[in-house]
Amino acid sequence: MIDLRSDTVTKPTLEMRKAAYDAEVGDDVYREDKTVLKLEETAAELLGKESALFVTSGTQGNQIAVLTHCRPGDEIILESESHIFYYESGAVAALAGVQTRTIQGKRGMMEPYDVEAAIRGEDQHFPETGLICLENTHNRAGGAVIPSANMKAIYEIASKYSVPVHLDGARLFNAAASKQSSIQSFTKYTDTVQVCLSKGLGAPIGSILAGPKPFIERARKWRKRLGGGLRQVGIIAAPGLVALTQMTDRLIEDHIHAKLLAENLHEMNGIQVVNQVETNIVVIDVKGLGLTAEEYISLLKEKGILAVTFGPSLVRFVTHFDVTEEDLLHTVKLMRTIN
Ligand SMILES: *Cc1c(COP(=O)(O)O)cnc(C)c1O
Fold first, then answer.
1. Residue 124 C-alpha to ligand 1 middle, in angstroms?
2. Collapsing DSSP states into helix, strand and coil, what is residue 114?
3. Is the pTM here over 0.85, yes or no?
């Protein structure tokens, strides 16, 4: 099987498995797990934040951020196809008790003007704007990179109104790799950030939530409330450390592979590549073949290729370090036989 469903399907590398085996551990609820402490310290420094917290998943990191920033009844501003709104099972309503104010972006990018207009003024009828969430790269926009200039403009508006900004940076390292810029050229325009270790970076489990020290201390309490206070978790933090320190430089390969796939699909009958491929995601429309996304995906599966639906006629492919150029060329060859 060539698995292009997501960059979450990568298996831990040999080095990660060895790091897990050798990890120095302790009870992390007592903050005695040296490997977790090292991961959190390394992540905070890399992301340019005071402090960091190891969490079980990207969703948990985002939800803890919303819970820590907001009070029930607050309103959060976020892009209308953002992961926090679209793919987190309604958690912001179920857990934090906040309501969402969505803004339709262009390629995942919200206009600063629209964000400013959505911030609530003083009026007893209004909820309070508790948080602005950004996403970079933007998953449903096909892995689009949100330019740091856009983040800067929104961050300045947020500061003017004293509203905090949280960045869902599940694939932020892909944004940095694509722009050949530092991770901090993005994180400097957000108060808090979540990055996934378990996507393109290849760790088996885990995300990092980073931000100011007092924020992270309160976030730690929310993590505990959610059942995320773990014990000898250095076993999984150790692969995370390998992910963070050794796997970021190779992401560009995934981008080259995604572009290769897209170029080959552009000229294929009945298929339209709908996103501008900047990182590791390719989205195609199969309407021209007279098939639904579900039908197309089951035909692909019969040929040994896995992808996911992204809309009624949209199919998403994600490249990652477990797929080679050869796999992709083979994929293209098999896709040509579906018409
Ligand atoms: C995958 C993803 C998440 C959630 O990460 P999980 O570890 O799967 O919970 C959050 N935001 C974005 C943009 C993602 O792509």
1. 35
2. helix
3. yes
The token duo for 119 is 């911030």
Amino acid symbol at 90 = G
Q: How far apart are CA 78 and CA 140, in angstroms?
A: 13
pLDDT in tens, the chain (339 residues): 999 999 999 999 999 999 999 999 999 999 999 999 999 999 999 999 999 999 999 999 999 999 999 999 999 999 999 999 999 999 999 999 999 999 999 999 999 999 999 999 999 999 999 999 999 999 999 999 999 999 999 999 999 999 999 999 999 999 999 999 999 999 999 999 999 999 999 999 999 999 999 999 999 999 999 999 999 999 999 999 999 999 999 999 999 999 999 999 987 889 999 999 999 999 999 999 999 999 999 999 999 999 999 999 999 999 999 999 999 999 999 999 998
CA distance 52 to 248: 18
Distance, C-alpha 338 to centroid of its chain: 31
Atom of ligand 1 nearest to the CA of 59: 9
Rounded to the nearest whole angstrom, what is the distance from the C-alpha of residue 121 to the centroid of ligand 1? 32
Mutating to test ligand 1, I would choose from 10, 63, 64, 87 the residue with most ligand atoms within 8 A of its C-beta, which is: 87
Q: Which CATH code of 1.10.3210.10, 3.40.1080.10, 3.40.640.10, 3.90.79.10 fits the domain covering 14-246?
A: 3.40.640.10
Pocket (CB within 6 angstroms of ligand 1): 57-59, 62, 83, 135, 139, 168, 170-171, 196, 198, 207
β-bridge partners, 192:
166
CATH superfamily of the domain spanning 250-335:
Aspartate Aminotransferase, domain 1 (3.90.1150.10)
Ligand 1 centroid distance, CA of 58 (Å): 5
Domain boundaries, the chain: 14-246, 250-335
